[in-house]
Amino acid sequence: MRYFEYGEPDVLTFEEVEIPEPGDGQVRIRTQAIGVNFVDTRFRRGPSSGAIFERPLPGKLTGDVVGIVDKGDEGLVGRRVVALSEDAYADYVVVDAQWITQVPDDMDVAAASMLPTSAPVALRALRSGVVTAGETVLVHSAAGGIGQLAVQLARMAGAGLVIGTSSTPEKVDADVAIDYTAADWPDRVAEAAPGGVDVVLDAVGGDVLRRSFGVLRAYGRIVTYGAASGDLIDVPMTDFFALRSLIGFSLLAWRAARPEQARAEMTELAGLFATGQLRAGPAVTLPLSEAAEAHRLLESRAHPGRIVLIP
């Protein structure tokens, strides 16, 4: 499934193609399930989403694929694995073997699909912010896939207070839940954490990122790992003079810079899911033919958990 024009979810189109062949260092996966990523709804809309989301046509859809290796490394053939794919909405995908993670046959597909992208981003964003015991952590978009995991991981890291914001705060499982679409959300954060927060995780960007500086205490850190709003802001130097820091994070950049550590963290996260210490939350499962509906659900924020497509 791809798209040949930008627009609403209905531009997603099936096409028949040859089954892909793996190259050197690659494996082919027979797909069992595909975890849908919010960023693809922005790519699908094209330039109207903002310059950072412009991609050439025809557009391919990323996704977190769960499936069985059926060709490539002989030691992996027949193994159940997960991997991030750049062309994921398909019966078969080809991925780099170094970035697959083996998962138990009985692991839930929603949990397994969190391992390539959502969980590593949540874990590394927190560790980039150097969260320590007793600190206050503010997680924006806390009802989303990454946000839900970040809330759980912040607690595991010993955070004293976890505040989550969302446009649907009733779906946030943090110590304090706040609606960030309300103009006074920073006041609500200040009420919950009178001394300010130590770490902010943000993938919204724009005004939410800009106003997050105002809720930081001295030596507070913001980790930004996306800009779903499409608004890339300029940050005044005075924010840094106030002993506040802004740290950027990208999963692909992290993999390139620290590949061994990135792979080790994927294995670490697989263990947390397998033992139930980390939970994927409620999932919606749809057939691949209803990918347009999956995108509508993501854009409406009607479902807070994982959305999974089944070929």
From TrEMBL:
Domain Enoyl reductase (ER): start-end pairs: 7-309
GO cellular component: cytosol
UniProt KW Oxidoreductase keyword: yes
GO molecular function term, any single one: zinc ion binding
Keywords: NADP, Oxidoreductase
PROSITE patterns tied to this protein: QOR_ZETA_CRYSTAL
Coiled-coil ranges from the UniProt annotation: none
InterPro entries assigned to the protein according to its UniProt record, in alphabetical order: ADH-like_N (IPR013154), ER (IPR020843), GroES-like_sf (IPR011032), NAD(P)-bd_dom_sf (IPR036291), Quin_OxRdtase/zeta-crystal_CS (IPR002364)
Superkingdom assignment: Bacteria
Protein name: Oxidoreductase
Organism: Winogradskya consettensis
